Every structure is written in C-alpha cells, then in structure tokens.
Amino acid sequence: MYRDPVESLESLHSRPALNRTLRVGMIGIGTVGSGTFRVLVRNQADIAARAGRAIELVIVAARNLARAAGIVGEGVALTADPMQVAAHPDVDVVVEVAGGTGPARDWVLAAIAHGKHVVTANKALLAVHGAEIFAAARKQGVAVAYEGAVAVSIPIVKALREGLAANRIEWVAGIINGTSNFILSKMRDEGLDFAAALAQAQALGYAEADPSFDIEGIDAAHKLSLLAANAFGMPLRFADVQVEGITALQELDVACAEQLGYRIKLLGVARRQASGVELRVQPALVPATHLMAQVNGSMNAVMVKSDAAGLTMYYGAGAGSEQTASAVIADLVDVARLDGVNAAQHVPHLGVHEHATNALAVLPRAAVHTSHYLRVPVRAVSQIQAVTACLAEQKVPVRQVALAAERPGIGPQVLVLTGPVAQGTLDLSVHALQARSEVAGVVATLCVELLEG
Ligand code: HSE
Q1: Whether residue 223 lies in the annotated active site
Q2: Do 373 and 338 fall within a single domain?
Q3: pLDDT tens digit sequence for 48-96
C-alpha cells in the first residue's frame, strides 16, 4: 500500500513522545534570546511534535536579572553567571546567544566539557574559535549547531549539508548581512543618508552590538567562512577572507552602476578555482535584472552553484529576533532528535574533517579573477580613448565603455566594465591609469558579479 512519505503534523502529534523533555539552558536573553523564548512558548506543541519530545527552557543567564524575569516570567531559573548554565546538571543543551568571542568561548567550551550539546547563533565566536570548539565537541561526542549564525532565517547550513549533500559545490555567493543591505536599500530607495539608515537598522535590532562589524563587512566574513567550510569541507578561514565593507562606497558609483544596468550589493563570495578558493566580502555590481539585485532591506539571499543541482537560491530575513529564533529552535529540534546517537554523524564538526579538500588554499587577493567596474575621472570627454588604450596596454579585457551622465559639479567620468581579469593585473592597470596626465582624480573600482552558471 502506498504511504505518504511526508508525515503530517497531526500524525506526529498523535505519536507517543519518545523521550523525556529536552532541557535548555540559555546564555543571553537579548534580541535573539527573547525571540527564542517567545517562539518556543508560542509554538510549543508543534515544536514538541516535530522534535519527538518537549523542549523546555529551564535556566537563563542574563546581565540584567529583572529584565530577564520580565521576559521569561516564573518557572525559569535565573542566574547572573553563565558558567552556572554551562555546568547545570539539569541542562541537556546550552543555547549561547549572548554574542562576543572572549567569554562566549569559555562558556561554550565549559558546556561541551560538561557533556552538553551547544546551539549558537554566534558567528563571530565560530569564525574565530570554531576549530577549537568543534574539536572539543567531537572529542566529547556532542553537537554544536549554528543554523542561526548564517543568514538567520534561511536554512542554508541544512541546505548545504543535507539538501545538496550529493553535490560538488562550485561557489556560494550572497547577501549575508542584513544591516548593510538595509542601509544600501534605504539610501538608494528613500535617499536616506548613511548615518540615518544605520540608526534605523540599530533601532530595529538588526545591527551587531558593534555596528562596524556590519558596515565593514566583518560580520559577512564570519558567515562566509562558515558557508565555505560547509560547502567545501575546508577549515574555517575567517582570517583569510578579503574584506571590504560599504563605508567607502560612493553615491556616485551607485548612480553610475545604475546607469550601466547594475545594482551594488555587499556580497560574500566563496568560489573554487583551479588553484584554491576565493573568499571575499565586498560591494559588487550585480545585474539589475538578477534576482540578487531584488533582495532589499534586511533580507538576505544565498546562491549556490553545484554540479548536479545546478544553480539554487535561498531567500529570507537576514536579521531579526524571531527570524533568528526560528533557526535556533530548528537546531534544538535537531539536537532533540539526535540526542543519544553519534553527534558527529549529524551536525558536521567544521574544521576537523580529515578530508582531501582540507588542502584547499585560500587564494591571495592578487590571484582572484573577476570582472570589474572602473570609474575614471578625466580632464575632458575626448580622453576616453586614453583610458581604453591604457587598459589595452595592461592587457585588461574591456567589455563596455561609457561616459557617466553629466552631474553638476562633477567632471567627466569614463565608466568601464572589464572581462574577468586577475586582481593583481587590475591593480597594476589602475596604477598605470592613475599616472596618466588625462586622469583627473582617484580611479574607483568595484567587482562585477554576474552570478550565473
Ligand atoms: N547584524 C547581523 C546582520 C545580524 O545584520 O546580518 C544577523 O546575523
């Protein structure tokens, strides 16, 4: 007899609970922690049905106990000491949502040493201390799950490790910082200035405690190192990510990109090349007609190019309280279902695979091949040919040349789109351009990403 392989929620509800309650200790009850508590309570029955058992918050560590009591009410123990949560005998899994890298490392390692599974949305912690944390977890046979750490609401870690498990991943690229995307969208669509847009992102709870992590591309680099480790089976290489944020981006380039039919997005790109892996976060031109260009506000999107599935794309909220809670609780459900089985089988312990691909080197900046946009200020419109001649001398392939639309107070600008060229070659050509008498100011360059097969 044919049976629907997808179990309905009703049949899950009618199934007897398999095990005892999964008891959660939480460190931090800020934006993500409070959202996690709200969703756990609101969707309690469905979550328990999916997890096969109840999931209950038993203790919370918070800096401000009165505020924490206001959020969780009675029935949840409170402590000011996160180590009490890490070591608590009644806790099966520690949810670390306090953020930061120093003390959070100690709490997580202590939890692991006490045999607790760990769920965290702390991308900085994993990017910086992940190798040590995953090694400790593997030794203890516990899971460290982190879906909420990358593109919060989008189950991209699951997509890479489960949905695309059959594939050789060629590249992963996306908008993986909600705050910077929100700022770029507000500036473009509403004419808001940078500071006002950032203040709004902070008020909405999107930004990191130190928002320079968002606007300087560091948060996206944390996430990119996790994506690359999942996609390519390589160790976490945060320190090797080429990082450029949005603070130096000029409105003039946003307008010139639009004139050429492109939008500028802060992209994280991890791509295999023959001789290594590119890991970079930078503002890049994306064709205005591409789906990635339609990702606005605090939304995130990740594209994956793999050999069997081809191009796939994932879209969802990239920041927010319950949006992150959704991922944190999905990890709790995973932990509830795997508790008792070999955790190493379930959530990959990143950075500790003895896998051939561990040998993948991160390419130095000069060796990265990509197309580029150049904006060259010149003394006169007639000097467009001096620009193209200089690029030809430097063996930079030129795809398109145009003059920027005239703007009051701004001299003539030659716009160039190149074909793929090594960054090192492009740097030399910019140097050569800069030395030409026809060039009247600083040459601006940005990468162009077509994001196609
Ligand atoms: N500050 C982060 C962002 C939060 O804006 O993407 C989610 O990781």
Answers
A1: yes
A2: no
A3: 999 999 999 999 999 999 999 999 999 999 999 999 999 999 999 999 9
How far, in Å, is the centroid of ligand 1 from the Cα of 209? 10
What is the CATH classification number for the domain harbouring 421? 3.30.70.260
Structure pTM? 0.93
Domain co-membership, 162 together with 224: yes
Residues 6+ apart with CB under 8 A from 5: none
The Cα–Cα gap between 114 and 318 comes to 32
User: Has residue 296 been placed in a domain?
Assistant: yes
Rounded average pLDDT over 365-371: 94
Distance CA(430)–CA(395), nearest Å, equals 12
Q: What is the dihedral of CA 245, 251, 252, 256, to 10 degrees?
A: 80
Centre of ligand 1 from the C-alpha of residue 287, in Å: 24
> How many whole angstroms from 180 Cα to the centroid of ligand 1?
9
149 Cα nearest atom in ligand 1: 8
H-run or E-run covering 370: strand 369-377
Burial class for 340, CB neighbours closer than 10 Å (0-12, 13-18, 19+): exposed
- What whole-number distance in Å separates Cα of residue 52 and Cα of residue 12? 8
pLDDT digits (tens, 9 = 90+) for 227-252: 999 999 999 999 999 999 999 999 99
Ligand 1 atom nearest to CA at 121: 8
Which numbered atom of ligand 1 lies nearest the CA of 318?
6
* 12 or 194, greater pLDDT: 194
CATH number of the CATH domain containing 296: 3.30.360.10
* C-alpha to C-alpha distances, 121 to 124, 212, 369, nearest whole angstrom: 9, 19, 32
Measured between alpha carbons, how far is 84 from 187 in angstroms, rounded to an integer? 45
Point out the catalytic residue in the list 186, 223, 265, 305.
Answer: 223
Is the same domain home to 271 and 349?
Answer: no
Q: Is the pLDDT of residue 354 over 50?
A: no
